[in-house]
Design a protein that fits this description.
Elements: E1 8-17, E2 20-30, E3 35-39, H1 46-54, E4 61-66, E5 69-70, H2 75-79, E6 82-85, H3 97-107, H4 112-125, H5 141-153, E7 159-163, H6 171-186, E8 190-194, H7 198-204, E9 207-212, E10 215-220, H8 222-227, E11 233-240, H9 243-251, E12 256-262, E13 265-270, H10 277-287, E14 290-297, H11 301-309, H12 313-316
């Protein structure tokens, strides 16, 4: 006997802009109570995918089902089952948190005692009950993002989508946001989470999909994705001068599968990374790159992302 239907099914989604295909036959699904991470570099099609899942854009081909409801055939009903937290703060700064939530609640059809109850509940969820009647303009960026999350939860959606919810926030607010999302998931909410902080995805998400070139190029649990590397290591070098020359020289070494560079850094994915260090330092000396420090990191999701896309996640965001 088959189990319950997924809360989200994205089937063969395709979206084109003229001759450019932003999303190319992408499919994934999220089960009830599942926290799903969606990762991808800039231009990979991740934001366009989220827009189609939320019903903000229509796909050129494919279908989105939310709780079994087609976003194409019954868009109003499907959209009502989604809570979306965008990267941008979408609040009225001259209104209080309570007044903002009352406004957004009415847009979802909430009225009277039901609206009052839900405002109190979501403010409690985001740990801002004591600031309910303070104007948004007095809130820190992190507190504003927590109100953004509260607004997305007012109508009790089946699926919560969070697009980079901790960008630019202070550490205390970041911890509060992550704890709140974990609480929502523990309560059984299906979640799609995107971030350029890999540690957040590793902490929150049970399964992870990696998007590049408009396609889902890998999907699985953290353990399943790391197994794809065949135990490759990540080698991080702090470098003064000639980062590009060192990355090029390092890429020629046996066992190095990827080499990228940034200001003051060179990042490698390599098998037996520690055994490569003497040859790597010899290459650095040859190209005139002064290595201040070297760190060999056991396989992790960052290494998987670098291996599959050729870019570190934070560089790609």
């Amino acid at each position: 006997m088959s189990g319950p239907a997924p809360v989200l099914e994205a089937r063969d989604l395709t979206r084109r802009y003229g001759s450019f295909t932003a999303v190319d036959g992408l499919s994934f699904q999220v089960e009830a109570g599942e926290p799903y991470g969606l990762l991808g570099p800039n231009g990979a099609g991740k934001s366009t995918t989220l827009s189609m899942v939320c019903g903000l854009q229509a796909p050129d081909a494919g279908e989105v089902l939310v709780d079994g409801v087609s976003m194409t055939e019954r868009p109003s009903e499907a959209k009502a089952r989604v809570g979306f937290v965008p990267q941008e703060i979408a609040l009225y700064h001259d209104l209080s948190a309570r007044e903002n939530l009352a406004f957004f609640g009415r847009l979802h059809g909430l009225r009277g005692g039901n609206l009052t109850r839900r405002i109190a509940e979501v403010l409690e969820l985001v740990r801002l009950s004591d600031r309910a009647d303070h104007r948004i303009e007095t809130f820190s960026g992190g507190m504003q993002r927590r109100v953004n999350i509260a607004a997305a939860l007012l109508h009790e959606p089946a699926l919560l989508i969070l697009d980079e919810p901790t960008v630019g926030v202070d550490p205390q607010s970041r911890t509060a946001i992550l704890d709140g999302i974990a609480d929502l998931n523990d309560a059984g909410m299906a979640i799609v989470y995107t971030s350029h902080y890999m540690e957040e995805v590793e902490r929150l998400c049970r399964r992870i999909g990696i998007v590049d070139g408009g396609r889902l190029i890998a999907e699985g649990t953290r353990h399943e994705l790391i197994e794809r590397l065949d135990r490759a290591d990540r080698v991080e070098l702090d470098v003064r001068d000639h980062e590009e020359r060192l990355a090029t020289a390092a890429a020629e070494l046996d066992g190095v599968t990827h080499a990228t560079h940034g200001p003051g850094t060179v990042s490698l994915v390599a098998r037996a990374g520690r055994r490569l260090l003497p040859a790597l330092l010899e290459r650095a000396a040859r190209v005139g790159a002064e290595v201040a420090s070297v760190q060999v990191i056991e396989p992790d999701l960052e290494a998987v992302f670098l291996h599959l896309t050729g870019r570190a996640l934070r560089d790609a965001a």
